[in-house]
Amino acid sequence: MSGLAFIEPTAVPELVEDPVLDEVPGVESFPLPGPLRVSSRPIGRGCPRSRPRAGCPLPLLPEEPALFPWLARRFAPGEATLWTGPPLAVEPILELLYAGVARAGRRVSLVEGGNRFQPYRIGELGRSLGIDATETLEWIRLARAFTAYQLVALVDGWASEVRRHPADLLVGHDLPALFTNDEIPAEERTELLRHVARTLGELVREVRSPLLLTLGARGFAEFPGLPESGPPWSDLVTFTRGPGTLRAHSLRSDARLALVPRPAGQHGIDEYGEPSPEEVVAWAAPPRRTAKRSKSG
Fold it and tell me: What Å distances lie between residue 194 and 74, 110, 127, 219, 233, CA to CA?
């Protein structure tokens, strides 16, 4: 692997920046490039959540917050799940996913293509779920590439890495990001990405762990060869972010989720209205300050 290796990131206990990102306008879902190799696995079947039986793995994510069961239903062993959307919509959920997997006592093997892994935020999110920040990052093995050729080498050696250090979830974060370098000829860029797509397909067939891939708002247009030569698909989830709300849409089951900022214990009008096809989950938020002072009496 040309001297590249997976490592366990080191936690820094103090949070040095606010993990809440500024909101940006949402974007429309990207067009699909054609038929995908979606598995015939039925949705909603599998092991009981409360009491895993023999032959059934432990849950990938905890039961709480309510977002975790929704995300867990999008994954399947030996298949890939694609998250797509602008980084400000995808990455806060990705960081929470890392913390949730660690909280469940499961391991993540991560190939980082976008160089945006934030140990401070992930450690603090783990702490908010009840585990130490350092312990949170001990459940993650990270390989960070700085050139397209390094990334190809990491993906080529990923199966060997997982055999040495078994993982319950594989994550390829923004793998095409390094291939936008103008010094790489367009023809070579396309062939390298097609090679990566084929290797990812071989990876999930060999290790039988769920694979999460994240892409930008352009989706498959950023990753030639992925729909045709990549792994079979468990689901494709599009994230969009607008004023006060983050939404997710699962293509396979047409499940829709809205995350709304709401302090603990506060109810929203959605809980009292007509049933909606969109599931609404409260997103913990600090109480807003007002300029008015309360009057006694």
Answer: 25, 20, 39, 15, 17
Pairwise CA distance, residues 84 & 150, whole Å: 23
51: helix, strand or coil: coil
Max Cα separation, the chain? 75
How far apart CA 63 and CA 104 sit, in angstroms, is 9
Scanning the structure block, which residue is given the tokens 């700085």? 146
* pLDDT at residue 233, rounded to an integer: 93
Please state the φ and ψ torsions of residue 31, each to the nearest 5 degrees: -70, 145
In degrees, to the nearest 5, what angle opens at C-alpha 249 toward C-alphas 285 and 230? Answer: 120
- This prediction has a pTM of 0.77
Sequence-ordered list of residues with C-beta below 8 angstroms from that of 234, at least 6 positions apart, any chain: 38, 39, 41, 74, 75, 76, 79, 80, 81, 210, 252
Tell me the HSE value of 5 on the side-chain side, using a 13 A CA sphere. 6
Q: pLDDT digits over 209-248, tens only?
A: 999 999 998 888 999 999 999 999 999 999 998 777 889 9
Q: Which domains does the chain have, with CATH numbers?
A: 67-245 (3.40.50.300)
Please say whether the beta carbons of 23 and 243 come within 8 A: yes
Q: Which residue in 218, 206, 110 sits closest to 159, CA to CA?
A: 206
- The DSSP code for 69 is H
| Nearest residue to 173 via CA among 228, 135, 207, 211 | 211
- Amino acid code (one letter) for 114: G
- The full DSSP string for 235-289 is EEEEEEEETTEEEEEETTT--EEEEEE--TT---GGGTSS--SEEEEEE--PPPP
State the DSSP string of 166-179.
--SEEEEESGGGGG
Prior bond of 224 cis (ω within 30°): no
